[in-house]
From TrEMBL:
<protein>
    <recommendedName>
        <fullName>tRNA(Ile)-lysidine synthase, chloroplastic</fullName>
        <ecNumber>6.3.4.19</ecNumber>
    </recommendedName>
</protein>
<dbReference type="Pfam" id="PF01171">
    <property type="entry name" value="ATP_bind_3"/>
</dbReference>
<dbReference type="InterPro" id="IPR011063">
    <property type="entry name" value="TilS/TtcA_N"/>
</dbReference>
<dbReference type="InterPro" id="IPR014729">
    <property type="entry name" value="Rossmann-like_a/b/a_fold"/>
</dbReference>
<comment type="similarity">
    <text>Belongs to the tRNA(Ile)-lysidine synthase family.</text>
</comment>
<keyword id="KW-0819">tRNA processing</keyword>
<dbReference type="InterPro" id="IPR012094">
    <property type="entry name" value="tRNA_Ile_lys_synt"/>
</dbReference>
<dbReference type="GO" id="GO:0006400">
    <property type="term" value="P:tRNA modification"/>
</dbReference>
<dbReference type="GO" id="GO:0005524">
    <property type="term" value="F:ATP binding"/>
</dbReference>
<feature type="domain" description="tRNA(Ile)-lysidine/2-thiocytidine synthase N-terminal">
    <location>
        <begin position="25"/>
        <end position="202"/>
    </location>
</feature>
<keyword id="KW-0547">Nucleotide-binding</keyword>
<keyword id="KW-0934">Plastid</keyword>
<comment type="function">
    <text>Ligates lysine onto the cytidine present at position 34 of the AUA codon-specific tRNA(Ile) that contains the anticodon CAU, in an ATP-dependent manner. Cytidine is converted to lysidine, thus changing the amino acid specificity of the tRNA from methionine to isoleucine.</text>
</comment>
<dbReference type="GO" id="GO:0009507">
    <property type="term" value="C:chloroplast"/>
</dbReference>
<dbReference type="InterPro" id="IPR012795">
    <property type="entry name" value="tRNA_Ile_lys_synt_N"/>
</dbReference>
<keyword id="KW-0150">Chloroplast</keyword>
<dbReference type="GO" id="GO:0032267">
    <property type="term" value="F:tRNA(Ile)-lysidine synthase activity"/>
</dbReference>
Length: 318
């Protein structure tokens, strides 16, 4: 028997995400409640759809119970007759940021090598709210604050989707209890040494209690509007970049660029660096580049063998 959450997922897949009926989906899951909720819903819907899907799990070995956790998930998967891919990483070799980058690299490589056109994660409305508040506190820009979106392109025709992004934690908990799903408890979620946990257990309940608002739904609507604004800026950034880039060399025309609003200037510089160096510069570095150009001084990017230089009307990579 299907529940209201099954119908909600169907609406998300075909309306919010506009998926084709023959889409091949690689589910990136753990044994937490969000992941098992998504897995159960997809399994039920697969019986009446043409979706092809597989499962991928990466054991980061970051917790003392990681191996038991991975074994628990394997025991769940082996009864499903679904193609699965299990990886184990050594966290001592990587920083937290490097682990995240490696995780998505593995997702993409596995998807491309096994003919999946879509990667799905189990991020929810609660995750989106926590991420938004956390990034606002850190002073992130529009794109950082709204980093958890419904979908984004990864490589060629490979896309990342978040099909339960409008499910809140109470709905997830209800479905897990309704079907008695074997959820593995992540004990690190209760430690306040992780800033996100303090947001989850103190700030969000405080806002709900004293401001009498559904903070998750309210921020969800805010972020949806913000996404449209961000997309408008992205499109204009690309148009601006194509106008100022050098037809042959790795350079952009400074005089042409400064005709744009400063917001677009920063975004054009960011696109230039990301496209040619794979560097994701901070806002401070981007503004420093704009200031440095006025004095024709080169700027060296720390920890990367790249120098940004200026000559006449051009900003170029040395």
């Amino acid at each position: 028997m299907h529940t209201f959450l099954h119908q909600k997922l169907i609406d998300n897949l075909y309306t919010k995400l506009d998926l084709e009926t023959n889409t091949s989906i690689l589910l990136a899951i753990s044994s937490g409640q969000d992941s098992l909720c998504l897995l159960r819903l997809i399994l039920d819907l697969q019986k009446n759809s043409a979706f092809r899907f597989g499962i991928i799990h990466i054991d980061h070995q970051c917790r003392s119970d990681s191996t038991y956790n991975a074994t628990h998930l394997v025991n769940i998967i082996k009864h499903l007759n679904v193609q699965s891919y299990i990886y184990q990483l050594n966290p001592k070799k990587y920083s937290e940021h490097a682990l995240r980058e490696l995780r998505y690299e593995i997702f993409m490589t596995t998807a491309l090598n096994n003919c999946y056109d879509t990667i799905a994660t189990a991020h929810t409305l609660s995750d989106q709210t926590e991420t938004c508040l956390f990034n606002m506190i850190k002073g992130g820009g529009l794109d950082i604050v709204n980093s958890l979106t419904w979908k984004r392109n990864l490589y060629n025709r490979l896309q990342l989707i978040r099909p339960i992004l409008n499910f809140d934690r109470s709905e997830i908990t209800w479905l897990c209890r309704y079907y008695s799903l074997p959820v593995w408890f992540d004990y690190t979620n209760i430690y306040y040494t992780y800033n996100r946990n303090r947001i989850r257990h103190e700030i969000i309940p405080y806002l709900k209690e004293y401001y009498q608002i559904d903070i998750e739904r309210s921020l969800g609507k805010f972020l949806e509007n913000l996404y449209n604004d961000s997309e408008y800026l992205r499109q204009n950034t690309l148009k601006g970049y194509l106008k100022v880039k050098h037809p042959k060399y790795l350079a952009i025309n400074y005089h042409q660029m400064i005709k744009q609003h400063v917001s677009l200037q920063v975004r054009i510089l960011q696109l230039f660096l990301v496209h040619h160096t794979q560097i994701r510069p901070s806002s401070k570095l981007l503004y420093d580049l704009l200031k440095t150009r006025k004095y024709n001084r080169p700027i060296y990017i720390k920890n990367v063998s790249v120098m940004i230089c200026t000559k006449n009307q051009w900003i170029y990579i040395c």
